[in-house]
Specification:
about 425 residues, alpha/beta, FAD/NAD(P)-binding domain, 2 domains, five-stranded parallel beta sheet, four-stranded parallel beta sheet, 12 helices, 24 strands, binds flavin-adenine dinucleotide
Length: about 425
C-alpha cells in the first residue's frame, strides 16, 4: 500500500492555497503529523471509532486524530439489558487503548466547541486547536429539550431518557429497582426519525422481563406519537406470549401523543388521559449532535444531508458526516449502520486523497432485539446507492411463527453480533 505524502495530497486536492495555511498561528506542526494528510474524526462512538481505525488501515500514511470527551465508551446497544438486569454496565464499556496502541490513531479526550470550515480548523474545550485536511463528524444525536412541555435536561435527572448510555442507564435501572410492586412504568416514545427504531420496544420488553420476575403486579404503558413501529408484529406477539397484558402500547391515533410532563408530580399528560407513574422514561424528539448544527451542517429538520456514496456533506464540502447525525436514506440510525458508514467514508477519503475513483458503496444493517433473554427477533437489510439515494434492495424480519428454539438461537446471535461489532469498532 503506497504511503501518501502531504505534498502528494496537496497536489491531488489542487489545494495550492491550502499550503499558505500550514503555518496557521498556534497550530503545532507536530499536531498535523510529519508525513501525510491529517484527518480529524470527531466522536468516538460507532461511526467515528470505526472510521478512524479504517482510515489508518486504508492508508497508514494518513495521520488520524480522534476527538472524544469520554475516556471510555458505553454503548447504547445492550444498555436495555443493563436496565433489564441481565448485563452489567462494565460489559458494555469499551476503551480506546487498542485504537491508539494497535492502530496508531491519535486519541484526544476533549470536546470540539467550534469548527471553522474556511480555515479547516477546530477548537477544543481545553483551548487547544487542530488543523485538518479532511474532517469526519460522527457526533450522534442531541435532544430537542422543551419539545415536550416540562421536559428539560434538569427533568431528565428525575425522568431519565437513557437514550445516551452511561449514568442515565444506571439511573433508570435504579428507579426500576426502587419501584413498588403494582407500580406504573410509563415510557414516552419519540417521533420519527430517531436513534434505534426498535430500541424503545426492546426496552419495554426488558422492563417487563424484570417486573414479571420481581414485581408482577406492575404495568408498562408506552405512549407513542406514532401509529406503527419497527418489528411491531413480532414485538406484540412476543409481549402477549411472555408477559400477558403487562405491556400496553397506546398509538398516536388513540391518544398516545404526550403534551406535557411534570417531574415534581411524576405525571404525564397525554392527549386523552393523564397518568401518574412510579417511573417515567421520556425519550425526547432528536436532532443531529449540537456540533453539527452549530457548524451549519444540518437542514431545517436538524439532520445532515450528505452525498450517499462518500458521506461528504452537501452543505460544507471537505467535511463528512456519518452515523445517526446524517441523512442516510433508507438506512436506519443504528450502530451497525454507523459502523458500515464509517468504513465506506474511510474508503472514500482514502481513494479521494490518492486521486482514485471512489467505488460504488453498498451498506448492510442487522438489528437484533431481545423480547426476553431467550427470545430474540431481528430485522436485516442490504442497501445500495442509486440516483434516489440509499435504497433498500434486500431484507426482512424474523418469521412470525418461529419455534422457541429459533427465538433462542436469535437471542444467541444477538450476543455474537455485539461481541463482533464492538471488536470491529474499538478492538
Ligand atoms: C437503547 C438503545 C439501544 C440500541 N441498540 C442498538 C442495537 O442493538 N444495534 C444497533 O446497531 N444500534 C443500536 N442502537 C443505536 C446506536 O447506539 C446508534 O445508532 C449509534 O451509537 C450511532 O453511532 P454514532 O457514531 O452516530 O453516535 P455515538 O455512537 O453516539 O457516538 C457519538 C460520539 O460523539 C461524541 N461527541 C458528540 N459531540 C462531540 C463534540 N462536540 N466533540 C467531541 N466528541 C463529541 C460523543 O461523546 C459520542 O461518544 C441503540 C440505541 C439505543 C439508545
Amino acid at each position: 500500500m503506497s504511503k501518501l505524502s502531504r505534498r502528494d495530497f496537496l497536489k491531488l486536492s489542487g489545494a495550492g492555497a491550502a499550503a499558505g495555511t500550514l503555518g496557521f498561528a498556534g497550530i503545532a506542526r507536530a499536531q498535523i503529523g510529519p508525513g501525510g494528510p491529517h484527518v480529524v474524526v470527531v466522536g468516538g462512538g460507532f461511526g467515528g471509532a470505526t472510521c478512524a481505525k479504517y482510515l489508518r488501515s486504508g492508508n497508514p500514511g494518513i495521520t488520524v486524530t480522534l476527538i472524544e470527551p469520554s475516556s471510555q465508551f458505553v454503548t447504547c446497544p445492550f444498555s436495555n439489558y443493563v436496565i433489564g438486569g441481565i448485563r452489567k454496565i462494565e460489559s458494555i464499556t469499551h476503551s480506546y487503548d487498542s485504537l491508539q496502541k494497535n492502530h496508531g490513531v491519535n486519541v484526544v479526550h476533549d470536546t470540539v466547541t467550534s469548527i471553522d470550515p474556511a480555515k479547516k480548523t477546530l477548537m477544543l474545550k481545553s483551548g487547544k486547536h487542530f488543523k485538518y485536511d479532511r474532517l469526519v463528524l460522527s457526533p450522534g444525536i442531541d435532544f430537542k429539550w422543551g419539545a415536550i412541555e416540562g421536559y428539560s435536561e434538569q427533568a431528565s435527572q428525575v425522568m431519565p431518557h437513557a437514550w445516551k448510555a452511561g449514568p442515565q442507564t444506571l439511573l433508570l435501572r435504579k428507579q426500576l429497582e426502587q419501584m413498588k410492586d403494582g407500580g406504573l412504568f410509563v415510557m414516552v416514545a419519540p417521533p420519527n426519525p430517531f436513534r434505534c427504531p426498535p430500541g424503545p420496544y426492546e426496552r419495554a420488553s426488558m422492563v417487563a422481563h424484570y417486573l414479571k420476575a420481581n414485581k408482577p403486579r406492575s404495568k408498562v404503558i408506552i405512549l407513542d406519537p406514532k401509529d406503527k413501529f419497527s418489528k411491531q408484529g413480532l414485538f406484540m406477539a412476543g409481549w402477549k406470549e411472555l408477559y400477558g397484558d403487562m405491556i400496553e402500547w397506546v398509538p398516536g391515533s388513540k391518544g398516545g401523543k404526550v403534551k406535557s410532563v411534570n417531574a415534581k408530580t411524576m405525571t404525564v399528560d397525554a392527549e386523552l388521559e393523564k397518568y401518574k407513574a412510579s417511573v417515567v422514561n421520556v425519550i425526547p424528539p432528536q436532532t443531529a449532535g449540537q456540533i453539527a448544527l452549530k457548524t451549519g451542517l444540518a437542514d431545517e429538520k436538524g439532520w445532515c444531508p450528505v452525498n450517499p456514496k462518500t458521506f461528504e456533506s452537501t452543505k460544507l464540502p471537505g467535511i463528512h458526516v456519518i452515523g445517526d447525525a446524517s441523512i442516510a436514506g433508507a438506512l436506519p440510525k443504528s450502530g451497525f449502520a454507523a459502523n458500515s458508514e464509517g468504513k465506506i467514508c474511510a474508503a472514500a477519503i482514502v481513494s479521494s486523497l490518492r486521486g482514485e475513483e471512489i467505488a460504488d458503496a453498498s451498506y448492510v444493517n442487522t438489528c437484533y432485539s431481545l423480547v426476553s433473554p431467550n427470545y430474540g427477533i431481528s430485522v436485516a437489510g442490504v442497501y445500495r446507492v442509486t440516483e434516489k439515494g440509499i435504497v433498500q434492495i434486500e431484507g426482512g424480519v424474523s418469521p412470525k411463527d418461529a419455534s422457541a428454539g429459533f427465538r433462542a438461537d436469535e437471542a444467541k446471535y444477538a450476543f455474537g453480533w455485539y461481541a463482533s461489532i464492538t471488536a470491529d469498532t474499538w478492538g
